[in-house]
Amino acid sequence: MTKKNSLRQDTKDFQSPIAGRSISQIVTSFGGFLATCAAMYLVNGVSFWLALALAPLAAGFLVRIFIIQHDCGHMAFFRDRRANDALGFACSLLTLAPYRSWRRQHAGHHGVWNDLDRRDRGADIYSSCLTVAEYRALPSWRRAWYRTTRHPIVANVLIPPVVFIGLFRLPFDTPKAWRQERRAVFVTDLALVAMFGGLGLLLGFGAVAAVQLPVMISASIIGVFLFSVQHRGDTVVWARHKAWDSVSASLQGSTYLRLPRVLQWFTGNIGYHHIHHLNPRIPNYRLKECHEAMPALRTVPTLSLRDGFRALRSILWDEEHGRMVTTRQADTPAASGDRA
């Protein structure tokens, strides 16, 4: 057995779900979210701004619910597939990300991340990039479009709410051959209409919009930031398919986002993204345990929260110098040779 295969094999000691911890996470995540939303509805009648002040807390719980959905999609939260799928669907009614189609597309991401020759399969603007040579070969208007759509404000603030609230209501990027996944999108939509319609009739549609929209907008921005930053930064490595392997891509093509303990709790330990890619079957609540038990997993690209915000601008792969760079570096003649 090679050293790389041995490393992956060793992580299997941590991939078994622990029923008590899974149930505890459900209670704290759903309970915290529902309690915070209830408080928002109560105070909204007194002051919209007071309700709005609670939106970040509710969004934090919603991000944690999305991490549970994410684990269910990898069959990591429970041992039983039906239990994972049932809980994943329940999560999707709050996260607005249709479970079955999202699960299959996300599985595609796990098969191609940081593989330069497979960027057309299961990749998106948050987990893919152009090379510097490809970017420089584009006409000026397409370079401007690339810069604009991947600017941190556009990609990480403006687009996420549009995707979660609007685009996810249609199978906009679900292949036609995925018939079950496409049907599941509309089943999710019908359930959402029933749920929010009933809530609107009970509490008033204006109140529902005043509470749920700020929470969903905040949660989508936070969630997309967490996903995109895990594959960014000038220490992240991309490779051509012949040189690509999943273990190296896990340890060099994704990062460890070191977060304060409270943020680590709300984000379900997703900062240990290198371990998640190495073994997606590890439940989120065991990622830290795995990280601390295996020294080889602690020698990966590490980002602080401040580093993470800076890393959002690293959107091009410089094959010549073997590192991620910004478009400003690529547009400068000496560009890729000097660090910004």
UniProtKB/TrEMBL annotation:
Recorded superkingdom: Bacteria
Xref: InterPro entries: FA_desaturase_dom, Fatty_acid_desaturase
Q: Which GO terms describe its cellular component?
A: membrane
- Transmembrane segment boundaries: 21-42, 48-66, 153-172, 184-205
Please give the Pfam families that the UniProt record associates with this protein. Answer: FA_desaturase
Sorted alphabetically, the keyword list is: Membrane, Transmembrane, Transmembrane helix
Provide the taxonomic classification.
Answer: Bacteria, Pseudomonadati, Pseudomonadota, Alphaproteobacteria, Rhodospirillales
GO MF annotations for this entry?
oxidoreductase activity, acting on paired donors, with oxidation of a pair of donors resulting in the reduction of molecular oxygen to two molecules of water
Protein name per the record: Fatty acid desaturase
What GO terms describe the biological role, i.e. biological process, of this protein? lipid metabolic process
- UniProt source species: Roseospira navarrensis
Query: What start-end ranges are recorded for coiled-coil regions in this protein?
Result: none
Domain Fatty acid desaturase: residue ranges: 48-296
